[in-house]
Amino acid sequence: MAEPERDRGFERLVAFIDAMVAIAITLLVLPLVELTAEIDDYDSVNALLRENQAEVWAFLLSFAVIARLWFVQHDSVRHVVGYDRRLARLLLLWALTIVFLPFPTALVAETPDDSTTKLLYIGSMVLSTAILTLVEARLARHPGLTDGDDDADPVNGAANVAMLAAALVITLVVPATSYAPLLLLLAADPAARAWRRLRT
What we know:
Keywords: Ion channel, Ion transport, Membrane, Potassium, Potassium channel, Potassium transport, Transmembrane, Transmembrane helix, Transport. Belongs to the TMEM175 family. It is a multi-pass membrane protein. By secondary structure, the chain is mostly helical. The protein has nine helices and no strands. The model has no long low-confidence stretch (mean pLDDT 88).
């Protein structure tokens, strides 16, 4: 039996969103590129890197975050063959959170301990993950938008949102923890599995 063909309009929408993600992830490296103009101010490249560890760390962390969010989004829509206006709006709103992320990333490099920086940075991740959870919920309620093989389940997304929100609260209430509470994300999958067992 032939698989349903993906709607051409949806293909264009996904390609457009992928292009935005690619641009956003490229923008992350621009502050590092600009550092090369200051190489004469340092004794060596090693010295430049040591002095700008915060910028390098912020780049690597945000690259990993955007890549992870893109993989989650990709997994969410891989079985989608059609779309409606609400799904399109959710995906575009998700893309907005990704395009915005280089801004708080730059702030993390300059003012990592500022509470507003933490709110913007981790808050962007919370919002992005929450939107993908809504996409999963939309597809679970409207399986006709998929090829029939989709196993859309918002539980994983909800667990990630909960862990990110908890990380945000902890880092704001206990500033000394810095961004370490983001490691709570490692508990998201076990939490989702535990929730599923409780429901069965």
